[in-house]
Amino acid sequence: MSATDHAARAAALQRFLLERIPPTRALGLRVARYDGATLVLAAPLAANVNDKGCAFGGSLTSLLTLAGWGLIELALQARGFDCDVFVQDSEVRYLAPVWNDFEAVATLAEGESWDAFLAALAERGKARTRVACTVPGDAGAPAATLVARFVAKRRG
Amino acid sequence: MSATDHAARAAALQRFLLERIPPTRALGLRVARYDGATLVLAAPLAANVNDKGCAFGGSLTSLLTLAGWGLIELALQARGFDCDVFVQDSEVRYLAPVWNDFEAVATLAEGESWDAFLAALAERGKARTRVACTVPGDAGAPAATLVARFVAKRRG
To answer: A interface mutation test: which of B13, B62, B84, B150 has the most A CBs within 10 A?
Structure first.
């Protein structure tokens, strides 16, 4: 797929999220970048601030989870799969407070592969994979991380 | 503490959350009940719906995390501790879709005790404890669970 295809899919994902999942509008969600392997979502601090003036943990987790979900959705769409994608479980670590607008960066987790995931989906109509998502913090260290397992089920 | 004290603290917590943490207004958060051992928060499906018509996972996690945070805040306030309380990490399981308005029920996790937590806080000015939170689903089975570790630090 070309960079133009990726940009078009990223724009369509943003429209879908904002139109069909109202809580994403409260987050102020934006799709920042997509290159086929990494999806980056962004949100402003102002809409997601807590009583201490930094980002509310629930908003960080929402953006992280949506980044993982979106990464899988885009990978499936690009390969012609029509699926429902659900988050099954996740582990979140809040490592440092976030004092600015923030991003959530999603990639496939270590040890996972699109080939294995898509082969299982083609064979059984259902497959699981894990995604690793990070909110970058100061000096390159992560401010929050999430590892989540998602299930995809073919429709119809 | 009397039931009247608990109700007053619950009402004050709701005011604090809605005034000081704007994302709680988007959730439509309400403090439903507090009895000194269990805190129950509630949110409407309409504000938290996803593309499938059930509750958005990020909203479930936000309400679960806030229930855990609130449980610790109220316990500390009742005992005269002035602390900052932060979530450190959490594990979330999404067990069943939620098709209605929902609640998040927070209690101290198994193996934890307020006495041990408060003793550590009094001695070192900082302490950790784990909270177990559940979104009840149909027929008494949980629809989502969260176990989270919180840190409290005395102020000043």
So the answer is: B62
